[in-house]
Design brief:
Blueprint lengths: L9 H15 L4 H38 L8 H9 L8
């Protein structure tokens, strides 16, 4: 996946580090608990959105491959992408 980029621009890296240091230096346990709860909720939402996007992209890639517009997809990739379908979670 050449389009997937795991590196942040330097300005964002610096902001992340600034916020991480602020959290690290915080002594207020109640504030840290509140922050942990908020971060956990946001992480869950982000994970769900990411899974939905991956599932949709894999479906679009499969349709393009079936139409002969794109290269055939690796079956292992299709199995993986299908397995993360959020609609089947908890079933």
């Amino acid at each position: 996946m050449a389009w997937l980029n795991f590196t942040l621009p330097l300005t964002q890296e610096l902001e992340v580090e600034k916020q991480a240091r602020a959290i690290r230096n915080c002594d207020d346990v109640d504030e840290l608990r509140c922050l942990a709860e908020q971060l956990f909720r946001m992480w869950c939402q982000q994970a769900d959105l990411t899974a939905q996007l991956i599932h949709q992209v894999a479906g679009a890639e499969a349709l393009l491959a079936q139409a002969g517009v794109a290269e055939p997809l690796d079956q292992e990739y299709l199995t993986w992408a299908s397995a993360i379908n959020p609609e089947t979670w908890g079933s």
